[in-house]
Amino acid sequence: MEINLTDEGTDRETGKSQGSRQSDDAAVNLEPEKFQQPGPAAEKEKVFEVDGVSVSYGDSLAVKEVSMDIHKGEVTALIGPSGCGKSTLIRCLNRMNDLVPSAKVEGSVRYHGEDLYGDTVDPVQVRKLIGMVFQKPNPFPKSIYDNIAFGPRITGMKGDMDEIVEKALRGAALWDEVKDRLDTNAFGMSGGQQQRLCIARCIAVQPDVILMDEPCSALDPISTGKIEDLMTEMKRDFSIVIVTHNMQQAARVSDRTAFLMTELDATEQNRWGRLIEYDATEKIFTNPSNPRTEDYVSGKVG
Ligand SMILES: Nc1ncnc2c1ncn2[C@@H]1O[C@H](COP(=O)(O)OP(=O)(O)OP(=O)(O)O)[C@@H](O)[C@H]1O
Ligand SMILES: [Mg+2]
What's the pTM? Predict the structure, then answer.
């Protein structure tokens, strides 16, 4: 698939790029058949090739030399203790770190083979193709309908807006709950509904990838379950990268899992995050190669 990251590449007709057309850190104990079976990485199409990526904030290194490939049609989970750089790393995948003045990203991130940080790449186009859902639902102070229609309108998507809105809300498993109150303010929804609204808002502009940074940590278990089911549905159409503190969740929803951990220098004054192990989720949770992964997923450290 060829994806055009420059603004000129946007097909105004469809809004698509031309040419592409709860934090519970308990040990995980799932039945082997419950794991997703991603198949050999070598045979999978790569969405991202992260190569030697380091991120600093000012003088302080936050993530050091991370290399990993992220595959199409999969859910990829980033796990690890607080402060190990999961959010920093996921923000490299849609250039959200550009918005943090002190952040400096080194190394290379290729997106469908193209340098995501190349001179001709339009960050606005990047964030349309690679959408993001945050920890805390952040609907706009507008009606449910206008929350969804906002993105398609500003990106100039053509087509029947009612249909676009319905499709996005159905895609986020929210339609039946809100179809009779589309003109009411989104702030009147429950937290779980607001988060599904944010997912619907994200998918309305037909992205290629959805990044989710702890999307369920502010939600109750029922809403969390709905969003987990949704991720499994959505990965047919979108590649998903999720940061989660909930290891049960990573084990349930993801195909591949990356474990990051904080490393200290000899003085113990400076710390940064490193990628310790990245593999099929089943392997990470049942038979990891690195003892530090084993300690973390078994709940010995955290
Ligand atoms: N905007 C920022 N400015 C300065 N330092 C930052 C900024 N964002 C993150 N950091 C630092 O970078 C390191 C990694 O933080 P990051 O938020 O990526 O970790 P995390 O793994 O997402 O943690 P958590 O699980 O608590 O969300 C931390 O030392 C943090 O203090
Ligand atoms: Mg974080």
Answer: 0.89
